Every structure is written in structure tokens, then in C-alpha cells.
Please model this.
Amino acid sequence: MAIKIREIEKDLLARHADDPIKLSKVHRYIRFLKIDISCDKDIDKDGTTIEIENGTQRFLKQHPAIATKLSISKEIEKLEDSLGIKNDMPVPSTTTSTVDDKGRKSLI
Model:
């Protein structure tokens, strides 16, 4: 599923057209989404690690785009909260319950 940045931007701009502060946040949010997609493309192209050569030394290092993605994901989440964008993904339960033979539930 491809992210349709222009559709997201249009929708958010229409929702917050009368609030200049939120419009600024919309523009920042869209910019972060574009950076995130660019990082994905770089990671897809190069892999999650890159080879560094320093003179005669060679070693593998985590792709710098991964660190970028992690740092902007926090900002994206903050902006989503501020703009009222809800995450539709269900949150997994942290506890599991079982039903015993008498129909009672117990937490495990």
C-alpha cells in the first residue's frame, strides 16, 4: 500500500484551514512523512547495514537512515496527536485471560 502524501496533505489542510498554527504543523508533518519515505527508499536500496572503509579497515555499520527514521517517528507521533490523527491499528492486549471449565476467567 503506497502512502498518498498529496491526499493526506489535502485532507489535513482542509480540516485545519482556519488555524495558522495547525497549518504550520500540517506542513511539518508532511515534510516528516516525505523524509520517512525517502529513508525507506535508501534502506531498501542499500540494506539495513552499510560497509565503511577507512584506509585498510572495513566494517559494517547500521544504515544512518534507520536512526533518522527513529528520531522523526517520535515527531510524527507528536504531530499526529496534535492534529487529531488517530492510529486505527488495534493495540494488543498485554494480559491474556483463559476461561476455566466453570466459565470463569483468570488472568495469566
